[in-house]
Amino acid sequence: MKRILVTGGAGFIGANFVHYLIEHSDAHITILDSLTYAGNLASLRGIPAAQLSTVIGDITDAPLVDELVSPSDAVVHFAAESHNDNSLFDPRPFLETNVVGTYTLLEAVRRHDVRFHHISTDEVYGDLELDDPNRFTDTTPYNPSSPYSSTKAASDLLVRAWVRSFGVRATISNCSNNYGPYQHVEKFIPRQITNILAGVRPKLYGSGHNVRDWIHVDDHSSAVWEILRRGTPGRTYLIGADGERNNHDVLEMILVLMGRDPAAFDTVTDRPGHDLRYAIDASVLREELGWRPAHQDLSAGLAQTISWYRDNTWWWKDAKVATEERYVLQEAMLAAPGLHNDGDAS
Ligand code: NAD
Ligand code: TDX
Q1: What residues line ligand 1, using a CB cutoff of 6 Å?
Q2: Residue-number span of the structural domain to which 161 is assigned
Q3: Mean pLDDT in the chain?
Q4: What total number of domains does the chain contain?
């Protein structure tokens, strides 16, 4: 694989994947990214220009996508609208990018017979009870809760249909919650770290009992690279690193690692329809492809991530202001009548 097209390469996981590829392959990488509020070319600083081409454009732009896909050996598709909270207040961009954008890429890889890897999420499976002994596997029925996860589920189903109907050489991976450097400050872990750095109390939604299955972004990258090289077209792989923790515990860990009182946070209005628990069974990936996560110590990973945000204020400070303005509006909208917010999506 000499020429790889990475969509969403200026986003959190896409940029980390590009850094990973530079370290672990000699591929030439082209990124296609429309630079929404979540894209930041500064996340790609330090990458040798000879190995990277940057195209600022939209994955729904069929002629552009066709032109970029045709000379590629593989496409790794990260581009998405990715934040659940945003999807509750303005779902349209999620439909356009996550559904129409994925469709546009599928048509191009079909035309040019290019290997395709689709990045998806564990959220397509809905949520689990806290005491459910089962975890998500590739046979768990789809049951998404939010506009975000429903559009990711739709995109996965499009990929499966293009495999079956047109023989497209595609794999899908559904990964759990990522953390690490270059993550947008709207997301839970960087939002709380940067709040503390800015002297603001962290914000916990609802009870904080919701469980997420955390994985370091470098482990996500290594799994995707393994699947791209050795995965079986047509297959779905679940990626996770056995990192289940509830939000309250993660927040306490961050506060303690940053030398603060573990109780120094505010509880705010819960997310409407808030998924209770995600948990991934990654045994297929471990057994079939021999993949192993390298960063299973969450406390060490958080400490490294805290250091990164502390040392790279320049990277996040502008986005922080805009993001917190958005969260003020969100709080006001949640307080307004008409939006369901008791955590039950009925
Ligand atoms: P992100 O929001 O940080 O980055 C998304 C990138 O896509 C941005 O650079 C943005 O500019 C770009 N983009 C958005 N719309 C586009 C369009 N129409 N055309 C071209 N580029 C566009 O997201 P992320 O957290 O890096 O997530 C990347 C992928 O991984 C997504 O598909 C997401 O569903 C999936 N995923 C994320 C997580 C997580 O914990 N963050 C977990 C599992 C799966
Ligand atoms: O300020 C906050 N306080 C809080 O308690 C924020 C932003 C979040 N939370 C909670 C909500 C979730 O239970 O923290 C948890 C994590 O929230 P997010 O970072 O928004 O992630 P989540 O909704 O779990 O989705 C993430 O993982 C799956 C990514 O954003 C998705 O793109 C991915 O598919």
Answers
A1: 7-8, 10-14, 32-36, 38-39, 58-60, 78-82, 97, 101, 119, 121, 152, 175, 177-178, 184
A2: 3-182+215-242+274-296
A3: 96
A4: 1
